[in-house]
UniProtKB/TrEMBL annotation:
InterPro entries in the record: PUA (IPR002478), PUA-like_sf (IPR015947), PUA_sf (IPR036974), TGT_C2 (IPR029402), TGT_C2_sf (IPR038250)
GO molecular function, one term: RNA binding
PROSITE patterns per UniProt: PUA
Organism superkingdom: Archaea
Official protein name in the record: PUA domain-containing protein
Residue ranges constituting the PUA domain according to the UniProt record: 80-154
Length: 155
């Protein structure tokens, strides 16, 4: 991977996840394996610990579990987090969606369509996915999907 491509990925991650997102996700260009589309655009970013992210056609990252874990370690709560309890943990771990009635708290800055880290109340990562409801209201809703889970910790 070229230095320009590495800086571009970090810049895009900083824009999407806020300051420090690029550094958290992409440390050491030599340790990253980037696959490209036929036109040469970055597509998948892998590291030794798994898939970090997929770079979508819209210029946004779709987190893998390894990427979610890196963001969880880099950012203090509640940034990018949706917190659930014991009741829904086994289902979310399997890759099932997180529903609003089980959300205990969420980052109020989350918007529908943002990448979200589904975290147990004890602080460990259960899944990564896409927020379907605004974070400011996730714990207020009684029905509906809060996070469309893309990958659970046991997938």
């Amino acid at each position: 991977m070229s230095d320009d491509e590495f800086r571009g990925l970090r810049r895009a991650a900083d824009y999407q996840f806020g300051g420090g997102g690029g550094t958290a996700l992409f440390t050491g260009a030599d340790a990253l394996d980037v696959t490209h589309t036929s036109s040469g655009r970055p597509r998948q970013v892998h590291a030794t610990d798994g898939r970090i992210a997929t770079y979508g056609d819209d210029g946004r990252f779709r987190l893998g579990l390894a990427g979610g874990s890196r963001l969880l370690d880099a950012f203090d709560g509640p940034r990018h987090r949706v917190v659930v309890g014991d009741e829904s943990e086994p289902f979310i771990r399997e890759g099932r969606n997180a529903f609003a009635k089980f959300v205990q708290s969420a980052d109020s800055a989350l918007r529908p369509g943002d990448e979200a880290l589904v975290v147990h109340e004890d602080g460990y990562l259960l899944a990564v996915g896409r927020a379907e409801l605004p974070g400011s209201g996730m714990d207020d809703f009684e029905t509906g999907m809060a996070v469309k889970v893309r990958q659970g910790a046991e997938d």
